[in-house]
Amino acid sequence: MKTLAELQAIRDRMKDSVTMRSGTGSIRAVVGMATCGIAAGARPVLSALVEEVSKLNLSEKVTVTQTGCIGICRYEPIVEVYEADKEKVTYVKMTAEKARRIAREHLRDGKVVEEYTIGAVEK
Amino acid sequence: MKELSLNILDIAKNSVKAGASLITITIDEADSWRVLTIADNGCGMSPEFLAAVTDPFTTTRTTRPVGMGLPLLKLAAEQTGGSLSITSSQDAADHGTTVTASFRMDHLDCVPVGDYAGTMVTLIQGSPNIDFSFRYRTASGEITLETAQMREILGDVPLDTPEVLTWVYESLCSPVE
C-alpha cells in the first residue's frame, strides 16, 4: 500500500523544482479525450505520452493536455502537436507505442513522424 | 467501451465541463450488484435537457450533433438487466448532477471494471485543480482516494506532477485492504 508518508516525501523532493517546472512549455501535445477518443483507446495513449515526456525530462518545454472531440472521430485516437511559429501537426490512429515514438522523435528531437500524420494516413 | 472505467472517464468529463469543483466517484459491489455513482457540484441540467440526455442526438459538443457518452453507459447497464438514472439540479443552493448505473455482475454481458486507476490518473492529469473523491468497495474491502487530502500534504506541488500521478496509480493498484 502506498502511504501518505510517501506523498510527503514527494513533496519534499519536488518543493524546489516546482517554480522551474511551471516555466515556458513552448510545445503543446493535445490528446482528444471525448467519447470517440476514449472508446478508440485514447487513455493509454495519453498515459504513454505523459510517462515518456517525464522520462525524457521534457516537462519544461512540453505540456501534455486533454481536449474534447476534435471532429474527425474515425481517426481517433488523435494527438495534435502545437508549437509556436510552426504548423500544427495532427497524428491519427495513435497507440501507446506510436505515442512514445512521437515523444522521442518529435517532441524531443523536433522531427515530425510523417507516417503517423493525418496527411500520410489519408492517402 | 470495453471497460466500465472508460465509461467513468467519459462521464466524469461531463462533470468537468459542467464546472464542478468536486467530483465523487463510487463503485459499490454487494451481492450480485455493482452500482456506479458519479456525482458532481457542477452547473446541473435543465429539466428539458435532462429528459433528453440519454438520446444520442442530445449533446453539448459542437463538432457534431451526436453524443454517445450516456447512451453507451445506459446500454452497458441495461444489457446486464441493470439500469441508469440521472438526477440534476440547477438550484443556486445545491446545483449538480448525479449519474447512477447498476449492473448485474453475474450477467454474461457485464463489462469488467477494468483499469480504474488509469482512469483516475487521467482525470487528475486533465483537471489538476478539481477535487476527486474516489471509493471502490467490494466484499473484500475498499480502496479510496481523496485529492483534497493529497493537496493538504502536497502544498504547492501540483497534482499533475508526474511523480504524484505515479503515486496515485500505484496507491490505487494496491491490493484491497
Structure description:
The complex is a heterodimer of chains A (123) and B (177). Chain A has a single domain (23-122), classed as Glutaredoxin (3-Layer(aba) Sandwich), CATH 3.40.30.10. Chain A has 123 residues and is an alpha+beta fold. Chain A has helices at residues 4-14, 18-21, 35-40, 42-55, 96-108, 118-122; strands spanning 27-32, 62-67, 79-83, 89-91. Chain A contains six helices and four strands, in the order ααβααβββαα. The model of chain A has no long low-confidence stretch (mean pLDDT 90). The longest helix of chain A has 14 residues, at 42-55. With 177 residues, chain B is α+β, with helices and mostly antiparallel strands. Chain B has a single domain, classed as Histidine kinase-like ATPase, C-terminal domain (Heat Shock Protein 90), CATH 3.30.565. Classes of the chains: A alpha+beta (123), B alpha+beta (177). The A-B interface holds A 1-2, 4, 6-8, 10-11, 13-15, 18, 21-22, 33-36, 38-39, 43-44, 46-47, 50-51, 53-54, 59, 64-66, 68-71, 73 and B 1, 6, 9-10, 13, 17, 61, 63-64, 67-69, 72, 115, 118-119, 121-122, 125-126, 149-150, 153-158, 161-165, 167, 170-171, 174-175, 177.
Helices and strands in order:
The complex is a heterodimer of chains A (123) and B (177).
Chain A: H1 4-14, H2 18-21, E1 27-32, H3 35-40, H4 42-55, E2 62-67, E3 79-83, E4 89-91, H5 96-108, H6 118-122
Parallel strand pairs in A: 1-2
Antiparallel strand pairs in A: 1-3, 3-4
Chain B: H1 4-17, E1 22-30, E2 33-40, H2 47-52, H3 69-78, E3 83-89, E4 96-104, H4 116-126, E5 131-138, E6 141-146, H5 147-154, H6 162-173
Helix pairs in contact in B: 1-3, 1-4, 4-6
